[in-house]
Specification:
With about 300 residues, this protein is α/β, with parallel strands linked by helices. The chain contains eight helices and 16 strands. Helix 2 runs parallel beside helix 3 and helix 5 runs parallel beside helix 6.
Length: about 300
């Protein structure tokens, strides 16, 4: 039998397929469609300390091979999540990764302190959301700014592994990642959406009230894959190849996921493709298993070609 289990900073997942934040609700929304217990993990919707209504106006806009979104981190706040949503998530089975955002460092710290004492398995520090006017992506553009935030959050994040989610919009995403690792990050997830735009030519104005939005979907996959490859190289050169990398960006089938695993990721997150095919993740798990059996690969970690190549 193929061994699909992976270890992310001490948390064991039954397989390397994780539902990405903001595309899967909190899991129960899809439980009537397929058995979500087969997943390795579920990332929560983006969480902030206080409730957020999110952005007004149009929030989703299809593009060729992609999707623009401007949700704006709509959520009911961490206290509400812990009391009302987390108990149901725990019953689903997969590891729970709490995606944490904030407008300023104090909000991140307060949120991390609450989540650190909760039954979530991993805290994913989101410093990459392009759809909020303050905070979010601003923390992930510069290595020094990113490291400063990771450092202060690390002080209150004593019990849970901390994964940092990075923005592809940073001038040098590998440098940001290395700064985060040196500041105390246990794992890195990349990439979040690309800052992009659409214009309504009929009404002669930008589609989104904030003008720009985040681009996801198959169109960004080759760029995301390249960034995962480059990050693994950077960490390896710095003697930190043991830091788990979770790859995401346009993954829509098992072959996509296998490419990320070969490039140096230990696990993947799947997002926008779930909107097109709600069975995408279970099909990816089956596809990875079949690939391993066909190629006589006993452990999913042995899929990586980075151990012997570059």
């Amino acid at each position: 039998m193929s061994d699909l289990t992976v270890d992310i900073a001490g948390v064991k997942l039954r397989n390397p397929v994780i539902a990405a934040s903001g595309t899967f609700g909190n899991g129960s929304e899809y439980s009537s469609i397929f058995d979500v217990s087969v997943l390795g993990g579920i990332c929560t919707k983006g969480l902030t300390m206080t409730p957020r209504a999110g952005n007004s106006g149009i929030r989703l806009w299809e593009t060729p091979s992609g999707l623009l979104n401007s949700i704006g981190l709509e959520n009911k706040g961490i206290p509400y999540f812990l009391e009302n949503d987390l108990p149901a998530m725990r019953k689903l089975g997969p590891a729970i990764i709490a995606n944490l955002s904030g407008a300023e460092s104090d909000e991140y710290v307060d949120g991390a302190a609450l989540l650190d004492s909760s039954p979530v398995d991993i805290i994913e520090l989101n410093i990459s959301c392009p759809n909020v006017k303050v905070g979010g992506m601003a923390f992930g553009m510069d290595p020094g700014t990113a490291a400063a935030l990771v450092s202060v959050v690390r002080r209150v994040c004593r019990n849970k592994p901390m994964m940092v989610k990075l923005s592809p919009n940073a001038p040098n995403i590998a440098s940001v990642a290395l700064a985060c690792v040196n500041a105390g990050a246990d794992a890195i997830s990349l990439i979040n959406t690309f800052k992009a735009m659409a214009i309504d030519t009929v009404n002669k104005k930008p589609v989104f009230e904030n003008f720009t939005a985040g681009l996801s979907g198959p169109a960004i996959k080759p760029i995301a894959l390249r960034m995962v490859w480059e990050l693994f190289s950077t960490l390896k050169d710095d003697g930190k190849s043991n830091i788990p990398i979770i790859g995401l960006g346009g993954i829509a089938c098992a072959n996509d996921a296998i490419e990320f695993l070969m490039a140096g990721a230990c696990a993947v997150q799947v997002g926008s493709s779930t909107f097109v095919n709600p069975y995408t993740m279970s099909e990816i798990i089956d596809g990875i298993n079949q690939y391993m059996q066909t190629n006589n690969i006993s452990s999913v970690s042995d899929i990586s070609i980075r151990k012997n190549y570059g």
